[in-house]
Structures are given as structure tokens and as C-alpha cells.
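Appendix B. One record, verbatim.
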Amino acid sequence: MSQAAFVPKIKAHSYIIIPARLASTRLPRKLLLRETGKSLIRHTYEAASRARRPSGICVATDHDEILSEVRSFGGEAWLTSPDCASGADRVAEIARRLDDVDIVVNVQGDEPELSGEAIDAAIGLLEEQPELVMSTLATPIREREKLLDPNCVKVVFDHRGRAIYFSRAPIPHARERQGELLDELLDDDPPRFYQHIGLYAYRREFLLSLAELPPSPLEQLEKLEQLRVLEAGYPIAVAVVPQATLGIDTPHDYRAFVERQRGR
């Protein structure tokens, strides 16, 4: 797969695709939960719809129940193959039908508080830098617990905002700063540490060819698919946003989300 093959056409027509799977292990049928009066997938759809750059949005789902739910509130939804191995595969299946789209944005279905500005930031990087094929987001880390948490993926990037590496480990490693000295680093401005936010924007042609890239050694070691892209030699641009989104993975996450909604 040649990098030269992904020099985009003179256009930047972008489109959001929300992969939405009915089955979920830690919080069964979470996208259809509606204690707020709206389903979780509707919250996410409406949040993503606040982005200004995309020309459209749809849900890519494996189940008729989610399809019916999205269409019931006037949203666009398409069924995808039940054999899709990942959300990215589901997004790619829909992207194949979008011949007039240059930039495809993958927004997770359990991100009901994602800001439209964050989506626009990821798209803007690809619109402004035609040589790029992929972008994502990051936000400063200010808490020690988050820095040390392997479930919080960290990213480091260069002066151009291109990702150097993603890791579950604390990166960069503060060799001579531990204890209270590490807390001082966490307060530094500009920030020293960044959390990766798993929203991706792709050139459509690149997304459709991602399956041709074999799993890479670092990807298999860290269990982070974006490392496959870096190891293959493709740059990933990183836009910094003020705060992380709060995804819904557990019953506790959902209860907290419901309380935040009731407090508005």
C-alpha cells in the first residue's frame, strides 16, 4: 500500500459514522438505555450533530432494534454485516457506499457528551493538511491516577502535532521526577502529559485500505490498533482539546451520566 496513493482529491467533504453494536458485556444493551428520556444512541447522535464541518451523519449498526430507534427520532441509520470484527470495520463498510466523501469520522456510539468542536478539530487537521491520512484527539492529563492507569491511553507528539507514540504506560517517562516532583510536572503549563481520545478522522481511501495493513508487533503488545498505522509509516495528526469525553462503559458510568443530565 503506497502512501502516495492517498494524496486526496481537491475536496474535503466529511461525514460522521457512528458504529453501534447492540451487544455489550459490561452494560447490556447500553445504547438503548433511556433513563434520561432519550436513548444513549440518541444522545450521541445529537451530540455529534453539533459539529459544523461534516455534511452528514449516520449510525452503522448490526441490529434492527438500534436501526429502528435511530429512525424513530429522525436519524439516519444503516444495517451492516454481523460479521464485522470491529467498529472500524463497520465504519468502513458504510464508507464504501459514500463515493462523494473524502473524510470519514468514526464517533463511538457510547460518547453522549462529545463536543461538536472536538469533531470539527479532527476534521480541520485533514482539511488544512492534504498530505495527512488520519487524525485524532488528545487532552492534557493533570491527575496522577490517570497518568498511571493503563486503561487511560497516553500519546506523545512532535512540534507539528504528529503522533510519535501511543501507550498504556506513562509517557514520557519522568526519570528523575517521582512522588511530589511528579505532581509538579502534572501542573506544568504547557502540559507534559496527554490522554488520547479515541475519535478518528480518516481519508476515505485510507480507511478502506486499512485492512491491508497486517497487525503490527507494537499493536499486538499494547493492544492499540492505532500503532499499526504508525508502524506502517503513516502519520497521525493530533488535535488538543480542553477535556476528555466521558464514555459509557459500566453501570456506574451510566448512572453518573444520568445524574449529570438531570442536573442541567
